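Good morning,

Attaching, inline, the backbone tokens for the sequence recovery test we're adding to the shared suite. The designed sequence is right after.
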């Protein structure tokens, strides 16, 4: 038995989706390093600020984006 034609080809793997999401955030915030922590299940960002880098953690990419914006406003 075979899968229906085209099944699964249009959907990225979870790892590919996370990588694309991280790249998108890094493009939106140049100089910020973003990644998904496989062990923690959290999104992470290392944000360079004038007082030194700040490590941020959030459960979703949107919340991480908000945290990055807030840290840049404060820092």
């Amino acid at each position: 038995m075979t899968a229906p034609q085209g099944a699964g080809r249009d959907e990225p793997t979870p790892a590919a989706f996370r990588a694309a999401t991280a790249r998108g955030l890094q493009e939106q915030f140049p100089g910020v390093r973003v990644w998904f922590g496989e062990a923690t299940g959290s999104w992470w960002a290392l944000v360079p600020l004038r007082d030194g880098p700040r490590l941020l953690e959030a459960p979703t990419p949107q919340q991480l984006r908000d945290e990055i914006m807030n840290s840049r406003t404060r820092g």
